[in-house]
Each structure stands twice: as C-alpha cells, then as structure tokens.
Amino acid sequence: MNKHNIKYYVFSLGICLLIFDNIISNNRMILSIIGFILLALGIYLISKEINKKSFYDPYAIKSYEEEE
How far is CA 36 from CA 26, 47, 51, in A? Predict the structure, then answer.
C-alpha cells in the first residue's frame, strides 16, 4: 500500500460501510458509526494535503531577460 493512497482507501471504505449499512438496515448502528468515522478521517486526510501544494505565480518574473 502506498502511503499517499491510504487516505483514499479510508474514504472509500467509509462510504462503502455507510451504503452497506443503509442497504442491509438491520439496525446495525455500529457500522454507521464506523463508516462515518472512516469517512470523516478520509476527508480530513485528503484536506490536509491541500495546503502542501506549491504556489505557482504565473506572473512572477523569473529572470531579468524575461522582463525586457
């Protein structure tokens, strides 16, 4: 397993557990709780990576030759 893909697996597993619990609906509240926790954890891990993106300024001058 790749370290960066774990967040997507956790997110997907949370969604699958919530859908499975709604389809079966045998009042297994524990599956809904676990699914919701995994879903929230996956969203948190995915959103944590948003700030790590490098900022690219297309209008920044990279050298003096480009300025002229």
Answer: 17, 16, 24
